[in-house]
Amino acid sequence: MLLANVTTEDICYDLGCNDGRYCICAAKEYGARAVGIEILPEAASKAQRAVMDEGVGHLVQILEGDLMETSVAEASVVFIYLLPRGMGEVAAKLERELQPGARVVTYLFSLPGHNPVKEIVVPVGRSSREESSFNKLRLYVMP
Predict the structure, then answer these.
(1) Is 62 helix (H, G, I), strand (E, B) or coil?
(2) Fewer CB within 10 Å of terminal CB in the chain, N or C?
(3) What is the C-alpha to C-alpha distance for residues 38 and 24, in angstroms, rounded to an integer?
(4) What's the confidence (pLDDT) of residue 26?
(5) CA angle, residues 7, 86, 60, in degrees to nearest 5
(6) Which domains does the chain have, with CATH numbers?
(7) The Methyltransferase domain covers which part of the protein (predicted)?
(8) Whole-prediction pTM value?
């Protein structure tokens, strides 16, 4: 979220939110509203419980469903950690729905058809393989 300069004015979406940690962080650390979209019922339930446990239910909404069938038009920041096979479809969706200037942060995989404005290596491991190009955050700004 630091990479995207999240503020209280932002509405952050996490596409494939799993346990909701990005949404919770956006709310707790930055006071931003956040929406997590998760297709797996168990993960969506776990994320919702975590949101309540962390006391950010007034700022975070977890939606159970297919991210391709859910509008992201209100998002000013989108976080994506998906496999490459889904990124092309997601990129087209973001191009259709997001306003110019919206920020998109990807983890590990790039957003097809877009050049990042910033890229950082995430220091998660001790070996050279773990610190390779596979552990990157990329920031994109939608045209």
Answers:
(1) strand
(2) C
(3) 14
(4) 97
(5) 30
(6) 11-141 (3.40.50.150)
(7) 14-82
(8) 0.90
Give the number of other Cβ atoms within 10 Å of residue 111's Cβ: 22
Interatomic CA distance for residues 54 and 48, integer angstroms: 10
Q: Give the residue carrying structure tokens 């209280």.
A: 8
Distance CA 65, CA 67 (A): 6
Provide the strand spans (E) within the chain: 11-15, 33-38, 60-64, 77-80, 103-107, 118-121, 136-141
Average pLDDT, the chain: 92
- Angle in degrees, 0-180, between the axes of helices 41-53 and 21-30, rounded to the nearest 10: 20
Query: What tokens does 118 get?
Result: 């910033």
Count CB neighbours of 71 within 10 A. Answer: 10
